[in-house]
Specification:
The chain is built from 13 helices and twelve strands. By secondary structure, the chain is α/β, with parallel strands linked by helices. It has two domains: 127 residues, Aspartate Aminotransferase, domain 1, CATH 3.90.1150.10; 235 residues, Type I PLP-dependent aspartate aminotransferase-like (Major domain) (Aspartate Aminotransferase, domain 2). It has a seven-stranded mixed beta sheet with strand order 2-8-7-6-5-3-4, with helices on both faces. A three-stranded antiparallel beta sheet has the order 9-12-11. The chain has a two-stranded parallel ribbon with strand order 1-10. Helix 2 runs parallel beside helix 12. The N and C termini lie far apart (65 Å). The protein binds pyridoxal-5'-phosphate. The site of pyridoxal-5'-phosphate (PLP) has 13 residues, from helix 5.
Length: 396
């Protein structure tokens, strides 16, 4: 036998182009720079700072002891799918049958399922600019072309339906929308959702609607695509991470057209088979238990949104008060720097970590994103340091 590494061995073949070509997010660079520093104020982290409520944890543990330790059906536990269908029917403005609910590993799993269910290599998928970077990565993985539509500050970070229609071509399969939005905090009004419904009907394309922040709305109400588009055109992404502070459980779901339900369940098999049984038990506990913490979480984020408004009052640096989610885009153009250079400088000079806007799309380099997912006093301090750095004040 020749030992590994002998002269005749051929070099290992390269990693796949899909893996190598995956767009890298600038946030990783900032996180690497912040790692190992104990003094940093973290405004970059996009998850609730609360632990999962104790009753959910307790009931999940009890379920595990009672046997929730095995594979489940690909589409998830029927009792949970029924509970989601019931809740969604009550809240989203349309009747949803449990057969249309597919449990997934986080909303990330739901997005993966949605995109792979409708998009083939070479197809177009329309994604927002600015928008959550995973949308572009997913399009890349699917071999699709990501076509950006604008959500500029001048329109309150909302898309324009005429502009979107002009981007639709023969290879367009789906439009991905996100309300409440990351990183914009914008919440789509009903009239806009109705426009998307009309576009989907007219062009025979799908709307993939990422509604993961549906329970975090401060002004007005969450409007779901479910109430405004035909059931055979929409795939609704949501989950438990943000509403119930359950990011680490990795549990989400997808509501799909009846015609796609089998395909979407089947897509779970080669990827995760099914979401973890203990996490499904925790999700059921969350739905069946007391819901007061959902409002309490939202009130906390609203209070922090108001702190942000107070710190930046009169500066003109916040183009749009976030109406939902827990993010805001802050205009750094006065600094004359790119968003990545600004983010690095802010971290080095003032110990505040945040996300460079360029992460979210080509239109967003004049912004940085802050997440109000830390305690009020730290948040205020971090925002004051950010504001003063943009305005060129000496205070550190
Ligand atoms: N969609 C958006 C817009 C998000 O911001 C996030 C997480 O930050 C997700 C989906 C993923 O949620 P989950 O933790 O349930 O996978």
């Amino acid at each position: 036998m020749t030992a590994a590494g002998s002269g005749s061995a051929a070099p290992a073949r390269p990693a796949s182009q899909r893996a190598q070509g995956l767009p890298r997010s600038a946030i990783r660079e900032i996180m690497a720079l912040a790692a190992g520093r104990s003094d940093v104020i973290h405004l970059e982290v996009g998850e609730p700072d609360f632990g999962t409520p104790e009753p959910i944890v307790e009931r999940a543990f009890a379920a595990v002891r009672a046997g929730a330790t095995r594979y489940t059906a690909n589409a998830g536990v029927m009792e949970l799918r029924q509970a989601i269908a019931k809740r969604a029917s009550r809240r989203l403005g349309a009747a949803i049958e449990s057969g249309r609910v597919i449990m997934t590993t986080g909303a990330v799993g739901a997005l993966f399922t949605a995109v792979f269910a409708v998009v083939d290599p070479g197809d177009d998928i329309l994604i927002p600019d600015p928008g959550w970077p995973n949308y572009e990565s997913l399009a890349h993985l699917a071999g699709a072309r990501a076509v950006r539509y604008g959500q500029p500050a001048s329109r309150g970070f909302l898309p324009d339906s005429a502009e979107i229609e002009a981007l639709i071509g023969p290879r367009t399969k789906a439009i991905l929308i996100n309300s409440p939005g990351n990183p914009t905090g914008a919440v789509f009004p009903a009239a806009l959702m109705a426009e998307f419904g009309r576009i989907a009907a007219r062009h025979g394309i799908y709307i993939i609607s990422d509604e993961i922040y549906e329970d975090i709305v401060f002004d007005g109400e969450h409007v779901s695509i479910a109430a405004h588009a035909p059931a055979d055109r929409i795939l609704i992404v949501s989950g438990f991470s943000k509403t119930y502070a359950m990011t680490g459980w990795r549990i989400g779901y997808l509501i799909v057209p009846p015609t796609l339900a089998d395909a979407c369940a089947g897509l779970q098999e080669p990827v995760t088979s099914c979401p973890a049984a203990p996490s499904q038990a925790a999700a059921l506990a969350a739905l069946q238990g007391d819901q007061t913490m959902v409002g309490a979480f939202r009130d906390t984020f609203r209070r922090r949104r108001d702190i942000l408004a107070e710190v930046f009052a009169g500066t003109g640096l916040v183009p749009n008060q976030p109406a939902g989610a827990f993010y805001a885009l802050i205009d750094i153009s006065r600094s004359g720097m790119t968003s990545i250079a600004f983010a690095k400088a802010l971290l080095a000079e003032r110990g505040v970590a945040l996300v460079p806007g360029s992460t979210f799309g080509p239109s967003c380099d004049r912004y940085v994103r802050v997440a109000f997912t830390i305690a009020d006093d730290k948040l205020r301090e971090g925002l004051v340091r950010l504001r003063d750095r943009i305005l060129g004040n000496a205070r550190v």
